[in-house]
Queue: 2 jobs
Job 1
Amino acid sequence: MQVTMTVNDEEITREIEGRLLLVHFLRDHLQLTGTHWGCDTSNCGTCVVWLDGEPVKSCTVLAAMAGGHEVRTVEGLEQNGELDPIQRGFMECHGLQCGFCTPGMMMTSRALLDRNPDPSDEEIREAISGQICRCTGYATIVRSIRWAAAEQAGTRTTAEEPERTVAPADRHQQSVASAQGSTS
Ligand code: FES
Ligand code: FES
């Protein structure tokens, strides 16, 4: 069957099997490997993308169901060469360790800040409660999202600066790649 959808502002049409999941369509047909595939049982949340602006676990959606709709992936967070504040927050506050959960965390938290620009820690934790960080880095993930909220509100102060550790250059490059969704 043929499916047409908009992915990161680009209309695409592909021939697919009806049983194909959206996560596999994005990764295998469009090579958008920033969206990760983890549990395949709707538990981990690493596969979260937006469908018409709402976060969805793309392992629970058939690609055919996304036909006629707008999909945004982590690769589509960056606009005009500028990282989204959420992406910068995860880099600044070390919100990722291995980076496996990061794309889903960022898509969920970007959606949270769009509807609630100044969430409490409790609201942040509630928003990401459907997602698992196997590295258990929840404290820095919450701090990253708070950093992004303050950054986009223009209220970030030095008191909110993260404690810095000196990261090797390759670790920094890995953070940039994960935040951009250019890892697989
Ligand atoms: S792969 Fe979709 S929730 Fe884990
Ligand atoms: S950073 Fe490793 S799973 Fe979250």
Job 2
Amino acid sequence: MYRYDAYDHAILRQRVAQYRDQVRRWKTGELSDDEFRPLRLQNGLYIQRHAPMFRIAVPYGLLSSTQLRKLAEVARDYDRGYGHFTTRHNLQLNWPKVEDTPDILEKLADVEMHAIQTSGNCVRNVTTSHFAGIDPDEIADPRPFAELLREWSTFQPEFAFLPRKFKIAVSGSTRDRAVTLAHDIGLNIKKNAAGEIGFEVLVGGGLGRTPILAKVIEEFLPWQHLLTFVEAILRVYNSYGRRDNPYKARIKILVHALGAEQFRKEVLEEWANLKDGPSTVGTEELERIARHFTAPDYAALPARDERVDALKASNPAFARWVARNVHPHKQPGYAAVTISLKDPRQPPGDCTSEQMEAVADLADQFSFGELRVSHEQNLVLPDVPVSALPDVWEAAKAKGLSTPTVGLLTDLICCPGGDYCSLANAKSIPIAAAIQERFADLDYLFDIGDLDLNISGCMNACGHHHVGHIGILGVDKNGEEWYQVTLGGHTDGVKGRETALGKVIGPSFSAAEVPEVVETLVRTYVAQRHDDERFLDTFERLGLAPFKEAVYAGRRPAALNTSAARESTHA
Ligand code: HEM
Ligand code: SF4
């Protein structure tokens, strides 16, 4: 993984010292709340419903066991002993004291971590696939490119005050696991006929209040031009993006307003000034960065292991875990393992300090000391020998980290919602818990099969509800919490049908109704599915109608009408 050099370390130390002084001046009243606000935000500190919220970056989701142990220590010493892994490779602490945040950053700097650009209208954490470097489908490892973008964009003065926050995702596989279509810039690595590496460049995607999928503006950009081309895009956005209205400030609105073709023309015009200039990436520079991402020292192992096969045959719980939480690996004899953060006893994505330490131990013992954070809010051990799977399973089980549900309905994505977030219209964690409780039967869950359920507490869509097969969105109706349901969204990741936005099925529901609604949707699917058809495929074959009919059947028309009338205010 990328290791800091002396310059990186020095920059981080200076930054912590600067921030420490800013906090001090705020405490003594030398800085007003308004003056302190942008300074704290530039260091990842929000003020939330109950307490500050501190967002720590995990660049492209890659963590060492040492870093995870440090996160555990920080969560224990300065928070309530847990942290929350988000959909964008960050860890959020929900209860730190403002006064402690310089100390937290100092501890993080010891292990080459920080919170810079985790907030503010700048280029945020660059995200990628949690299987980067190990995916059998991989065209090229996206991490060196993500790191290039990180180095280039961190402290980039020209793009520190964009019209709005800016998110870039890079995918290196034929299957997109980084949801590139829902990012401001999505970069899909491709190989041309000559075997050279380049990027398909997508622009103007995003969820939130106005969900839009990104448009391709370049079919094949040679990798040498990555930074100059991204710079050209950002310049066009910086010049024309709307600063008058924060709700219309994202690049997706600009691309939509101009049209992708016109936007592309503007970018090409700007690029003419930058192409082949100093930001062009040289082979030496790429190789310098790529050396940080070489494969670990794999042993030559047989692809199968008899002990594992025998345990799978004799122990259904282990077989289930292998079926859902163990993933193929480029290297024979190895597998990637998802450490689930979806035990129903904890909010989705939450991880206690003790659990973080347990996962760090597992990484040291079985995965070359390395881990990943997935955008589905789980952790991944990327390089586990197949023969060690039973040991990993036992150890994960002991800590409540072996929930065997990856990709199933209860492996849901869920934002912190009204329990923490001051922007929320409704709570989302109790909704997640109620659904997880309703679908606790593993036999049933396995029978239902692949189903993504995503929950957001407001239209900002942090929980990615637009791209859930079933999406649940908290809406406010006259001060009460209601939930709107969408169907058919997905991030399938397969070329040609990577991502789609869900469709609203109709009037929203009370919190108490939601589990029953989900159950009805699932029952409708089970009754209608063809042999191996997934929920999503059945939905695409049948459309909204049968699901809608089943869910609203028996609801009183009056209630329906009132609800429908109110709905329009939330469009
Ligand atoms: C688990 C916690 C969180 C996660 C995973 C998360 C992640 C995200 C993601 C993925 C989006 C969608 C952006 C897009 O694709 O356009 C988003 C939007 C947004 N989030 Fe969060 N976020 C979290 C917490 C928060 C909190 C606590 C705040 C409040 C300070 C917040 C404020 C926003 C806003 C304002 C937007 C809309 C941005 C826009 O469309 O311009 N988020 N967040
Ligand atoms: S979706 Fe809304 S409620 Fe949920 S974390 Fe984002 S801003 Fe907060």
